[in-house]
Write a structure and sequence with these properties.
The structure holds 2 protein chains of 2 kinds.
Chain A: E1 10-17, E2 30-34, H1 39-49, E3 58-62, E4 65-66, H2 71-78, E5 86-92, H3 97-100
Parallel strand pairs in A: 1-5
Antiparallel strand pairs in A: 1-2, 3-4, 3-5
Chain B: H1 11-24, H2 26-40, E1 48-52, E2 57-58, H3 63-68, E3 77-80, E4 86-95, H4 98-102, H5 105-123, E5 126-133, E6 137-141, H6 149-156, H7 168-185, E7 192-201, H8 208-220, E8 223-230, E9 237-240, E10 266-269, E11 277-281, E12 287-291, E13 300-304, H9 310-328
Parallel strand pairs in B: 4-5, 4-7, 7-8, 8-13
Antiparallel strand pairs in B: 1-3, 2-3, 5-6, 9-10, 11-12
The chains are: A alpha+beta, B alpha/beta.
The structure holds magnesium ion.
């Protein structure tokens, strides 16, 4: 085990998208991910799964709500336990191109 | 108390479910009993061991030193050692967390529990304990009570699969404590005590590094741990209804396919734990991914999708363990 990776709280997430051509491969749709992740982390993760050289910024919908906090805070605010597999839908984020370079 | 009482099965429901599982797994428990009878019998006794002045067969490694010593080092014989009676303590830790219910693994887990406890009761090789774990650890059945059908019903009454956490680290630590206590109480004469822990769970847990440390401790304390992963979701096909809004985008090039809107869009396969990927972001901000099972912290584990597979695979794992112990003795 990689010693630089600490034991962190995790939750199962199932990724999906309605956008053609942006689906992650079948074998990486179900992930066990740290609950500390935020939108930017998830966006980098999806780009990593898509092997994108030029990252696309993504927004994330969990149970139909846009993720604006860490997953952990989202779970607490919505009374969901980390025992539940989260359905996470991603969609292209329309943000000014000025900010794209920070991804 | 780890449960919200409203979510636990009523005594009647628990009894009905226990009886149902007991009868549906009856022939499977007999199969397991036959396997275990062969494996748990004291096989070590049939091995030849050295070094004796008289015996059954010469130990060839001792011959040259024997001659070199002027026939003084004469412990050159092997003997069959006497079989000693073995006593077993089997602790079954059943995952009571909510993920079990959500993935549909709880039913298979209860069947597994029924099958194994009935089989051990038929064998009469020792004591059986059942603990439940979720956010806390609950001893549902103690070692010092016989595991009858009524005991099974009472165990079932204590599982609601509603716990909000899956504390595998906690249950291993607590169980090692229970085993230690049992060793202290039950150290009688020549009988050998063998301790086995079976964890029955969907296998989803964190704190893997801490668990690995405990698994090593268990090995040092001669407690064997077999992790039975109930993987009820594998291979099932689930239809997911995706509602597509009638938005402006469908009026363009997609108009021809417009007829598909509002119907089942994706046929989503439920994913097995064997396909689950772990994700971490390292301190340097790098995304690291690996197959969850590649770093599963338990050395002996089985993945069971159907209760009918259990007698064979469980026997296989135990046979391997006994083989290793006999080989190192
Ligand atoms: Mg769980």
């Amino acid at each position: 085990m990689d010693p630089s990776i600490a034991d962190t709280a995790k939750v199962q997430i199932r990724l999906s998208t309605r956008e053609d051509g942006l689906e992650v491969p079948d074998d990486s749709r179900l992930l066990f991910a740290p609950t500390s992740l935020r939108r930017v982390d998830l966006s980098r993760l999806v780009n990593n799964l898509l092997h994108n050289d030029t990252p696309i910024p993504f927004e994330f919908l969990v149970n139909g709500q846009f993720l604006r906090t860490s997953i952990d805070e989202f779970l607490t605010q919505n009374g969901i336990s980390a025992e539940t597999t989260l359905n996470v839908e991603y969609t292209r984020a329309f943000i000014p191109s000025l900010h794209v370079s920070t991804f | 108390q780890t449960h919200i009482s409203g979510t636990l099965p009523t005594p009647d429901a628990a009894r009905a479910l226990w009886l149902q599982h007991e009868s549906s797994t009856h022939s499977l428990s007999q199969q397991l009993t036959e396997h275990l009878r062969l494996i748990l019998a004291p096989t070590l006794a049939t091995k030849l061991r050295g070094d004796f002045r008289t015996g059954k067969r010469l130990n060839l490694k001792r011959i040259i030193p024997y001659i070199a010593s002027g026939y003084k080092r004469d412990k050159i014989w092997l003997r069959r050692s006497m079989p000693s009676k073995r006593n077993y303590q089997v602790l079954i830790a059943l995952d009571d967390s909510k993920s079990m219910k959500e993935s549909g693994a709880s039913d298979l887990a209860l069947k597994t529990l029924t099958l194994v406890t009935r089989s051990l009761a038929m064998l009469e090789v020792g004591e059986v304990s059942v603990v439940g774990f979720g956010d806390a650890v609950n001893v549902a059945h103690d070692f010092d009570k016989p595991f009858t059908s009524d005991a099974g019903v009472r165990v079932f009454e204590q599982f609601g699969f509603e716990a909000q956490k899956t504390n595998v680290r906690g249950v291993v630590e607590r169980s090692l404590g229970l085993f230690e206590e049992a060793r202290r109480k039950g150290s009688q004469g020549s009988e050998e005590l063998w301790q086995l822990m079976l964890i029955v769970s969907d296998g989803i847990c964190d704190s893997h590094a801490e668990i690995q440390r405990l698994v090593r401790r268990a090995q040092e304390e001669r407690v064997m741990i077999v992790f039975v992963i109930v993987d009820a979701t594998a291979g099932e096909t689930v239809k997911t209804e995706v509602k597509t809004e009638e938005t402006a985008e469908s009026s363009g090039a997609g108009a021809g396919a417009g007829g598909e809107h509002g119907v089942v869009k994706t046929e989503d396969k439920k994913t097995s734990i064997l396909d689950l990927q772990s994700v971490e972001i390292s301190n340097e901000g790098k995304i690291v991914r690996w197959k969850y099972m590649e770093r599963f912290p338990f050395r002996y584990y089985l993945v069971v999708r159907d209760v009918r597979e259990l007698p064979g695979v469980l026997a296989g794992a135990l046979r391997q363990w006994f083989g290793e112990i006999a080989g190192s003795a």
